[in-house]
Amino acid sequence: MGLKGKKVVKLLLTILMLLVGLTMILPFLWMLSASFKPESDIFTFPIQWIPKDPILSNYTNVWSGILPFYQYYGNTIYVTVLSTIGGVITSLLSGYAFARINFKGKNIIFLLYLATLMFPNTMLLVPRLVIYRFLGIYNTFWALILPNSISTFGTFLLKQYFSSLPSELFEAGKIDGCNEFRLFWRIAVPLVSAGIAAFTVFTFVFCWNDYENPLMFITDRPLYTIPLGVMEFKGLKTSSIGYIMAGSVLSLIPIFILFISAQKYFVKGIATTGIKD
């Protein structure tokens, strides 16, 4: 294939990827457009992507009007931040232990740990419900925070990052008198920033969008998170679709900010993760 043929193929692939990207972003654009429309204009055909008479009442009513959406927002921030911090800390410690500390039965324990990924979350809902009632944390934020503070996926992901670091770095640290914690905190953690950033984003998005667990373990409305709060608008008699779209747009803002701010950490970690033993 000549140079001209390669350019044609590259152009066709670019067009194809552009079309695929548009199909993925169109629902978000429709959601954004519908959030500024009155109920009567949302389902008009052909679709009016730019509202003729945009309104802000959907947002004002959602945030401080019909339902205490601001409270749902605060609950979600509280649960998500604590869950993410706990998940990152425990995954860092366990990932480093499995990657860099030799102890008896390490491989067997790690395989058993990974085996828990085979169990779907829905199968564990009833046992977790019984345990939470026994511990007295049912219908509390701890029923959402504690399970997300331990992540098998995070342990596996960060173990791979720790395992990719050169052993010479740790040997040099031991020669300089570093104990195990200093090796972990001063050498290992700064070099796996890409893995930490990736896992932080995954955990934050999962906890922020989690609907199944709050639905099962939270019953009091003042403890609702955003996914449950958005579904509350379905029971309203007027403008429920507009409210749902406005609430969905508001719920995406923290995730969008997180993705934008975390990009530089992904790039920063690429150079260090390319070094292998």
Automatic annotation (TrEMBL):
Key words of the record: Cell membrane, Membrane, Transmembrane, Transmembrane helix, Transport
Keyword Iron assigned: no
Superkingdom of origin organism: Bacteria
Record flagged with keyword Transmembrane: yes
One example of a Gene Ontology biological process annotation: transmembrane transport
Main location: membrane
PROSITE patterns: ABC_TM1
TM ranges: 12-32, 77-98, 110-135, 141-162, 183-206, 241-260
Signal peptide span: none
Family affiliation: Belongs to the binding-protein-dependent transport system permease family.
Name this protein carries in UniProt: Carbohydrate ABC transporter permease
Organism encoding this protein: Massiliimalia timonensis
Organism phylogeny: Bacteria, Bacillati, Bacillota, Clostridia, Eubacteriales
